[in-house]
Design goal:
alpha/beta, single chain, 2 domains, D-Amino Acid Oxidase, Chain A, domain 2, monooxygenase, binds flavin-adenine dinucleotide, FAD binding, FAD-dependent urate hydroxylase-like, 403 residues, 14 helices, FAD/NAD(P)-binding domain
Length: 403
């Protein structure tokens, strides 16, 4: 028997129930379009404590109808500065007049999921491969339990190591030399920090922090990845211990922030990216298979834009599909479905391409500057950045438009 005869049939399948998968399912739901999200974890999964959401991300969350609820959980950041411990110099970090807040990742994910119809998310369902059905030319997903699922449209939101991205010809992701430790610290009696984003640096180590509420603070430390870090990343106590050692020259109150953090909020992560030139040369869809979020544009966290860009993807994809679906419903002709979906994906890819190429390029340059040991290389990157990205908050002004 052919695999398509055994397969469960669905219209729209989203692979991955992270920020992007859930936002995409919600965008479609708001437009009256049903989808199924396949998530390999047992429950909703959110790695990395908190996420900074900038004005472009809030615009997308507004369109999804969840922004008001999320705003209640986090204060607005009103400024930022950078302090070099080597020479005590202080510099402003521009954040503009737009809305910047830091959300608990679990809040964001749960809020998106709670607005979806029951049974939209299927947990413990890992996609292992994707093929085209030779008869219908629709994609067929092979699941970890050996079963098959055929869909008219597959959207890969399966993160940096995406199975779906490989199938549409995107090259594998690459690694920066820098890694990040992230955590949350709760101050029972309230903290003393202003509503500001602060980055403090000493040598190649940077500590950044941002209050989320009057008690809770999100912080991160960037440093070089070492050969022991794979083992360290699996144990919260070791992550804290190695971070304290990295930061021994930092002020005492900063050391205290790390030493008193929630152990279970700690994550040590290597940083992967898709090269900007790979994005430039790809169409982001093959037939009725496409990608969104990190599966499409994994980038370092240096601009804190990967998550917001994923929300933008969801809005644009939802809009492009909804426009075509309306025409399809009117005509009720199944023979045009494939063509219409392909047209919608073409429009989605066209609209997203240059936005994510520029974001990825800017992030890539910052990442390479942090990686660089040579002063000359750093200098060249600074010049290139000054020419290409003279408006440091230009990336936050982007508006993905209405859903
Ligand atoms: C250190 C760090 C800090 C960051 N800080 C920020 C920030 O402050 N602001 C910001 O906007 N962005 C930030 N980002 C980027 C942001 O985290 C990502 O862009 C965002 O999480 C991408 O969401 P996603 O849904 O595409 O991928 P993911 O969050 O990785 O979700 C993918 C989902 O797919 C599931 N999955 C994977 N493979 C399969 C499969 N084969 N079958 C079924 N399910 C599968 C996974 O279990 C997961 O749930 C940061 C990233 C890092 C690494």
């Amino acid at each position: 028997m052919e695999m398509q005869e055994l397969a469960e049939q669905r219209d729209i399948v989203i692979v991955g129930g992270g920020i992007c998968g859930l936002a995409t399912a919600l965008a479609l739901h708001r437009k009256g379009i049903k989808s199924l999200v396949l998530e390999r974890s047992k429950t909703l999964r959110s790695t990395g404590a908190a996420i900074i959401v900038q004005p472009n991300g809030w615009r997308a969350l507004d369109q999804l109808g969840v922004a008001t609820r999320l705003r209640r959980t986090a204060i607005t950041i009103q400024g930022g500065h950078y302090i070099s411990l080597a020479d005590s110099k202080k510099k402003e970090i521009p954040i503009g007049n737009g809305e910047v807040r830091c959300l608990k990742r679990t809040h964001l994910i749960e809020t998106l999921a709670n607005d979806l119809p029951v049974d939209t998310i299927r947990y413990e369902c890992q996609v292992v491969s994707i093929k085209l059905d030779p008869l219908t030319c629709y994609p067929v997903l092979q699941l970890h339990n050996g079963s098959y699922l055929q869909a008219k449209l597959v959207i890969g939101c399966d993160g940096v190591n995406s199975v779906i991205a490989n199938s549409i010809g995107l090259n594998s992701v690459k690694l920066f030399c820098t890694c990040v430790v992230r955590g949350l610290t709760n101050y029972q009696n309230g903290h003393k920090f202003k509503p500001e984003f602060v980055v403090m640096s000493k040598g190649r180590v940077q500590l950044g922090w941002m209050p989320m509420t009057d008690k809770l603070v999100y912080w991160f430390v960037t440093r070089q990845w070492t050969s022991q870090d794979l083992a360290v990343s699996k144990n919260s106590m070791l992550i804290r211990q190695s971070t304290m050692e990295t930061m021994k020259d930092f002020p005492d109150d900063m050391m205290e922030m790390i030493s008193t953090c929630y152990l279970n909020s700690l994550h040590l992560t290597d940083l992967k990216y898709r090269a900007p030139w790979d994005l430039l040369g790809n169409n982001f869809h093959e037939g009725t298979v496409t990608v969104a979020g990190d599966a499409m544009h994994a980038m370092g966290p240096f601009l804190a834009q990967g998550g917001s860009a994923s929300l933008e993807d969801a809005i644009v994809l939802g809009r492009c599909l909804a426009q075509k679906m309306n025409i399809m419903n009117q005509r009720e002709r199944s023979s045009i479905v494939k063509m219409m979906v392909e047209e919608a994906l073409e429009e989605y890819a066209k609209e997203r391409k240059m936005r994510i190429v520029w974001l990825s390029l800017e992030t890539y340059l910052i990442g390479k500057m942090l990686d660089a040991k040579s002063v000359m290389v750093k200098f060249v990157i600074i010049i290139v950045m000054a020419v290409l990205f003279s408006d440091p908050i230009g990336n936050t002004r982007y508006d993905c438009g209405r859903l």
